[in-house]
Amino acid sequence: MREITDRALDTARARGATYADVRVVRRLEESIDVKTGTLAGVSTNESEGFGVRVLVDGAWGFAASHVLTTAEADRVAAQAVRIARASATALRRPVVLDGRPPAHGRFETPVAEDPFAVPLEVKIGDLLAADAAMRRVGGIAFTDSTYGAQREWKTFAATDGSYTEQVITHVGSGIEANAVDGDELQRRSFPDSGGGWQGAGYEYIRSLGLAANAERVATESVQLLSAPKLPPGRRTIVLHPSQLYLQVHESCGHPTELDRVFGTEASYAGTSFLTTDKLDSGFRYGSELIDIVADATAPGGMGTFGWDDEGVAAQAVPLVEAGRFTGYLSSRETAPRIGRESGGAMRADGWNRIPLIRMTNINLLPKPGMSFDEIIADTDDGLLLAHNRSWSIDDRRLNFQFATELAYEIKGGKLGQLYRNATYTGITPEFWGSCDAVADASSYVMLGTPNCGKGEPPQTGHVGHACSGARFRNVQVGVMK
Amino acid sequence: MSAIEMRTGGTPAERLAIAEVVLHHAEAAGATEAEVLVIAEDAALTRFANSEIHQNVAEANVRVSLRFVRGKRVGVAATGRTDEEALRRLAETAGRISDLVEETADWTGLPDPGPIRLVDGAFAAGTATASPELRAEGVRAVIAAADAASVTAYGSFATTVETVAVANSRGIRAAEARTSSQLITVSMGPEKGTGYAEAAAVDATTIDAAALGREAAETAQRSAQPVPLEPGDYPVVLAEYAVVDILDMLGYLGFSALAVEEGRSFYEPGKRIGSDLVSIRDDARDPAGLPASFDYEGVACEPVALVDAGVCRDVVWDSATAARAGRRSTGHGLPAPNPYGPFPIHAQMAAGTTPRAELVRGLKRGLFVTRFHYTNPVHPKLAVITGMTRDGTFLVEDGEIVGPVRNLRYTMSYLDALAAVEAVSSERRLLKGFLGGVLVPAVRLSSWRFTGTTGSD
Fold this sequence. Notes:
Chain A is of the alpha+beta class and 481 residues long. Chain A has helices at residues 2-14, 70-87, 120-135, 202-208, 210-226, 241-253, 258-261, 276-281, 372-377, 428-433, and strands at residues 19-35, 38-56, 59-65, 104-108, 142-158, 163-181, 184-190, 196-198, 233-239, 292-295, 316-321, 324-325, 346-347, 356-357, 362-364, 381-393, 399-411, 414-419, 422-427, 435-438, 445-454, 459-467, 470-477.
């Protein structure tokens, strides 16, 4: 590997790069999909290649190839330099990187049971068992049970002498039952609408209890068909972690990405309402109960690593402390512009993509006091919303609307009526400001999403979110007619 | 380095030769049927923000996937390597998977070969040889237009060569090189004015970057200082950039044979879902789009009428859904394994008879919407979608745009939207959709349901 990385860096330097880095990545993926009792797909995919990123005259260039030879390293490094020179013809602010120390070392995701060593028939059998349990419930139209695993072997080298090696493993699995009656389609999923995902081995899949929850999930999807629609109104809502994590993702994770703040994602995903003046002024993002941290060291998170894709060591960066906005997800290029050092959030989707500022593990910290069940018991009149069904948020991350699979009335601290087609909407800081309870650590769980989209060309990110559940007051619900 | 050296390339014949090698390995490993799909891509994208180039990338990539069938057992494996050892191992891996899985009870076999007439106009040398300097030149033209209007430019200019080759054990041999390019730009002014423009083309050299820059900049100037507007039901004119989302979403949710089979689609043959003015078809062979001759199963793409004068006519089919229904694939298969089913990649909405400029003049009081943002299904079967407006939302009174309004959230059935179409522009634009090129007009609708607005900040 050294031969490829050295050659690419030497060529880039020789052609005029003032800084260059190269990532050589091999990615192995496995997926299984069971649809309504039939094995719809089993596949493996391997991909390997390298990408060279260079700075020339203060401008970026990047080129990548799947051909791992020294001759190709020469060609690709030269191409990256040529691209950077083209970038320099439309440059207004030359890039300046922070001065992080060279990175050296090795990191590996802790894995108890190697998912790629578990026999395929075992993994298929686990899915089929869960799928069969869902289909034993009368009224189920179709089911979907999925499993996925991804492992990356990643070598990073840079002209400052950095050289790191990482082996990162992510696994996920989930089940979904769908009941249909005329125009009505009701889905129930477990443990989450995108499946449960962690940086872990097959031991995590075993811990999910898919088969044990299958009958309940399927029964709920059938019950939802005859449940009344959630009436509109302003209500107290209690968000289960299976919904709250996505609320954190969309309304805290994305707006704290410093590249969005500086406009570099404006043409695609948008910008952010969390402008830098709000950092300086200690903007009130939420109530005093809100502590949110970007923690790339959190156990089990899909945003956990040894170094980011610029060679910055994994760290925990506070984003919101006691409700005040205090930090960003940042990079070596963006952090100096606010007088800080990179928080280590640059991540690339494989060898053929440049690193972008991405979420690591954006965690809403638990609060001692009430457990999640005690929050429900403490709620006189409200709704329990769980398991995401739909999401949308504006280009500055202010106006959001979510739908959930489940909505239960809470009356006098007890769960009651089940509603279908539940939605809620709000404005980010008002919503977080209305939080009056965050559950304690007993329900704190690491979740995440394996399909966070960003960038052009598009990149798919694996990010983690730990949370415990929380309560919000005076929230608009029931938006759909 | 010459421009052509930026491509690592591979001709369609060379990619088909790789497929032949894998097919040979699969048959040697005991496959009763096998299908090899090779997708090679030389892609580059120059991205700009704050009126400067900030990201600029190129890649050479290839993916070889094998559908290995033993009886009714199907295994799929893919690799990004094309050396002999990797291709042999690909066959072994897919074969091993096929041994481990249970039989696919309704396995209908791989598709049979049929005549494939390669479409004209799928490939343009102007895109294949596009250099970083050419893309930078286009970006500079956009930035110059923004500078002239005292706004800031953001966007990207992408050029792609995709070479697709399919070979299967039943005799399908199909290979084709396709090019595409896309320039998008958002302009942002100092007083919260934003604008958008986009174009897609087979030939990157036909994209008028300066004109797109001017279009976005003018919208940004006109949308400065937007005022709040009470949510509610308003008649609207949707620009082409918004209409493309309607076609994409309906394609994803309903115009797929698998969606119908699973009961999750709104589609029923003969069901009226739109006004008489609404006709939607998928036509991969139309040179006005981003053409393709065959799908990812090597089946010739056929034009499909999805909605004819407001009435559902058909959906798109791949080989599996077609065989189960006892009919022929329309050539809309995606790469295996594909749990999502076929997809209308090359959707297009028929042009109407109203000049685009006349659409707004037909509004007594309503809104002009440039584009939608972050749309997502709330109720898939009813095609209820939520999203936000973006980059230029304007109040219209007595047929004239009177001023910009803040972005609005909507929660609206796209089927209700089709039913509300009361005028369709006579001009259309080629834009990039979820997966391919989409041809769309602008439309006027009698009602659109806005359910919220952005906060005061």
